Amino acid sequence: MVSSRRERAKLEIDEYAEEKRQWLEVLLSKPESERRFSEQQQAEFVRRYFIEREKDAVQFLHMKGAEMTCDERIEWEADLQVHLAHYMGVSDELESLDVDELVEEVCIEKKLYISFSRLETKRFGSALARANAESYHRTLQRLRGKAETALYPEFQGISCATPLSVAASAVLPLQQVTPEQPTLTVGKLASIYMEEVEKANTRSKSTINTYRTIVRVIKELLGGVPTNDFTYEPAKEFLQSLLLLSPNLKKRFPKKTVKEVMEENERSGDFERLAKKTLENYLTNFSAILNFGVKRDYIRKNPLSDKFVREIITRIPEDPKEPILYTIEELNQLFRAPLYTGCVDDENGVNRLGSNRPRRGRFWMPLLALYHGFRLNEVAQLHTEDVKHEEGIWYIFVRPESDEKSQPATKQLKTEQSRRRVPIHPELKAVGFIEYVQERRKDTSTPLLFTDSARAKSGYYSDIASKRYATVRKAVIPDSLGTFHTFRHMFRDALRVARVESVEIVETLGGWEAQGSKSAQSRYGRGPSLSRLYEEISKVKYDGLDISHLYPKKN
Fold first, then answer.
1. For the chain, give me the number of helices (H) and strands (E)?
2. Which label site among 227, 479, 491, 535 has the fewest CB atoms less than 10 Å from its CB?
3. Which helix (H) or strand (E) element contains residue 488?
4. Where are the domains of the chain?
5. 3-state secondary structure 54-117
6. Where are the beta strands (DSSP E) in 169-286?
7. Which CATH class is domain 186-314?
8. Spatial contact of 268 and 274, defined as CB atoms under 8 Å apart
């Protein structure tokens, strides 16, 4: 019985993952212009959504209500009260995690292919939560035999009997039910400040140019964000995004937007970062813009004055070439996240405690990267057949092609040196990776090793995988500046600590490009044997890191 429930739960998770994958593929295939949703469209969609929920609720009560025993009605009423309290809390407090999940679930269910900004997600999610709360409120009234009254004013006069054409114009638009609408956006505030600075003509041309750079970034990333919504969390996120910028944007990437450059840098992991001094200048200039807004009453408070927000920039290494690493404490926290100890599922419920322990890409990718130095796209695009067994050694074959030559090419490597055979670390075998691979070989529906992997419009699997990893990382170690690529840096350091000194071995394991004459010589011959590579990679360890709780329990 337990096994049957687990199988059903696993099936539901897999079905939802497939629905999400298909939804993402369609979403990313659409041009940006088709992925917008005006406030009026959002308001109309929420009203239609509420009417559909009401129809289902009324039909269910009509069919099942008379058959319920007294105890069943009491239990149902208690459930309704729990749901009502939950959705009222989400709509009032705008809890980001619940709002994000609600918006995603509705978009997938209703096949709504829309990209929302963080602020839009909060507003739309809040409106959907109010619609759910309204429906639960009215169902409770029906169950108790009371006259139906509206919980929220935007649903006054709307019921399951309301024609959709009437509903489209029957209630207030979303922006009227959102309190304290600001009158100015962050992008507009930056423009006003620049006009004032240029008009005053009291600053040098070089100073004005530094302002122009940060203003360009502000307009692209925060242009439509109302000033009063730019608070502590959005400010932290913005500063963290600056860590993905490269120097000389305008000259080096004349045809790319700031967001495109950031996405490309996040995907590759290997990019030239801005110097700490430059980032500090950006922080100072943006803070000056916000202080100007406070003085002019355009914004209530400057969130960049908070020392914990500013720390995102002030605590990065002085040398832009020095990698940002995770501490051992952060790694222990990460691998004790609900994903690794028990969560609701590995999709929307990945950061909520639960009884499930799904082991798919989201689970395995960080572990594989930490102990093997894989780039995110390398591991996210792996096929089951890329895990091989030769000479008594299990290894992962990082390559662009497949065994079956007729299969369409979907995998990409960064360089020629990226193609390599990497023996599987003993710790991954202890966690059960080989058993996972063997189980995956029974599934012929997809060649992918990880069923939750999906290729983005860019052609890279890492685009989506990066966002999925960031969701977990931000929930568990929110103050860390590390990214998925940080695991690759840590692997390189672990090789140094383990005294793996052969340049050829290091370059072969990590797929790094050959540097210098010794490396050039290593290109000749067949290279290190699997047994030698396994001997060296087995030396990699992280003192203080304990993942023994991930070992399968022995019967």
1. 25, 3
2. 479
3. helix 486-497
4. 31-177, 186-314, 328-550
5. HHHHHHHHHHHHHHCCHHHHHHHHHHHHHHHHHHHHHHHHCCHHHHHHHHHHHHHHCCCCCCCC
6. none
7. mainly alpha
8. no
Element (H, E) at 392: none
Among 365, 398, 380, residue whose Cα is nearest residue 458: 380
pLDDT of 174-224, one tens digit each?
433 334 444 588 989 999 998 888 888 777 777 787 788 888 889 888 888
Alpha carbons 58 and 49: distance in angstroms, whole number: 14
CATH fold of 328-550 reads hpI Integrase; Chain A (1.10.443)
Give tens-digit pLDDT for 500-526: 989 999 999 998 876 554 544 455 556
- Which residues, in sequence order, are CB contacts of 367 under 8 Å at separation 6+? 335, 427, 428, 431, 433, 547, 550
Q: Which amino acid is at 230?
A: F
State both tokens at 404. 């079956």
If residue 420 lies in a helix (H) or strand (E), which one and from where to where? strand 420-423
DSSP 415: S
Report how far residue 334's alpha carbon sits from residue 480's, in angstroms, rounded to the nearest whole number.
11
Model pTM score:
0.58
Q: Name residue, tokens 């993952």.
A: 17
One-letter amino acid at 497 equals: V
Structure token digits, residue 167 = 């509903």
Note whether 372 and 396 are within 8 A (CB): yes
In order, the DSSP letters of 457-478 are TTS-SHHHHHHHHHHHHHHHST
